[in-house]
Amino acid sequence: MESVKLLFSIFLFLVSFSSFLLGVESDHVHHDNLKRLRPNRLFVFGDSYADTGNIRKSLADSWKMPYGVSFPGKPSGRFSDGRISTDFLARYVGIKSPIPYTWKNYAGKERLLYGMNYAYGGTGVFKTFNNPLPNMTTQIDYFQSVLSSGNIYSPSDLNSSLALVSNAGNDYGTFILQKRPMREFLGFIKKVVDQIEVNLRRIHKLGVKKIAVTSLQPLGCLPSKTTYTSFKHCNASDNAFVSLHNTLLRRAVVKLNNETKPSTFVILDLYNAFLTVIKNKKAEPGFTRFVNPLKPCCVGITSNDSCSNVDEKGEKKYTVCEDPKTSFFWDVFHPTEEGWRSVYSVLRENLKAVLI
User: Fold this and answer.
1) Choice among 76, 161, 334, 342 that is catalytic
2) Contact assessment for residue 325 and residue 340, using Cβ atoms and an 8 Å cutoff
3) Is the N end or the C end of the chain the one with fewer CB atoms within 10 Å?
4) How far apart are CA 127 and CA 213, in angstroms?
5) Can 331 be counted among the known catalytic residues?
6) Which UniProt keywords apply (predicted)?
7) Catalytic residue (choose from 87, 171, 269, 331)
């Protein structure tokens, strides 16, 4: 127990010291947003916070009811009741949400002009518990293959394009499921962020001029973690580790931006946006006040069930709240459409930096 406390104390020191260093480094980041234009294509990489339908229907809950109940009114492969992060970012830049990669052969050429979504739910920068699904390196391989074909996008198309890179923590979930020693966890966080940096640099070298990468959301506030407090309190220990990830990510982005002029890489600060919405106690223009923001709308009726589960007779093994718009979280991992809308409302100043 004492060793755990010591490790945690060391960790908090590292976070504080790293944050101090970043405060110094960030003074060198370029600020030229006023002369930028909106991108006209969006390329997406990552996980279930960004996936709009890449996983085969037989493999994902996102293709089962009640997912998609708010939009488009039926399951669409999104891990929510409706629109997700990708959709709101596309809306902000004024384009249609990009077509999922696995649907590219069924989309008209005009639809492909808005970009392409390579994200797969459950994946990470490394292999995760969803081994058969492509990690981010493989997703970028798919992107490179599409570019190499020359049939859809030209180099000039990429000059006015934006990439969204989502990392919602599946690598860390896999680390825990593998029951690896916790003494290795801090080193593993650095490995994850180092790989994100490699991925960002590679996407840029392929020609994308503006790249937005998400900070890690407060994992300790996900309903999967707060269920033990009856959805009343976030797990501070989990959020402390998230802070280290985000501190290292900010440092990596500062480094990348110092290598590319003008500033190319932008962090979408999901961590603080989530907490702002979760902690909001009053109705404010732009985003919703959720009465119990940590309680999900769709939950299994027992601890062994989850949203969308049914028994052998087809009977539901889950319950759904009366109105998803009153909930920040849809299931134990993902926000509702209203939750994402509120997050992007908080991010509206941050989003100005995605202009090219």
Assistant:
1) 334
2) no
3) N
4) 19
5) yes
6) Hydrolase, Lipid degradation, Lipid metabolism, Signal
7) 331
Percentages (nearest 5) of helix, strand, coil residues in the chain: 45, 10, 40
Listing from the earlier edge strand, what are the strands of the sheet with 115-117? 99-100, 115-117, 41-45, 161-165, 210-214, 265-268
Average pLDDT of the chain to the nearest whole number: 89
pLDDT score of 287: 65
Answer whether residue 117 shows pLDDT above 70: yes
Angle in degrees, 0-180, between the axes of helices 270-279 and 236-259, rounded to the nearest 10: 140
Overall pTM surpassing 0.85 (yes/no): yes
Identify the weakest region by mean pLDDT among 38-42, 85-89, 331-335.
38-42
How confident is the model over 188-233, as pLDDT tens digits? 999 999 999 999 999 999 999 999 999 999 999 999 999 999 999 9
d(CA 187, CA 196): 15
Q: Which of 48, 62, 97, 263 is catalytic?
A: 48
In a 13 Å sphere around the CA of 193, the CA atoms on its Cβ side amount to 23
Neighbouring CB atoms inside 10 A of 114's CB total: 19
How many Å is the Cα radius of gyration of the chain? 20
CA distance 26 to 34: 19
Which letter, b or e, does each residue of 203-213 get, where b requires 16 or more Cβ atoms within 10 Å of its Cβ? bbebebbbbbb
Active site residue 237: no
334 noted as active-site residue: yes
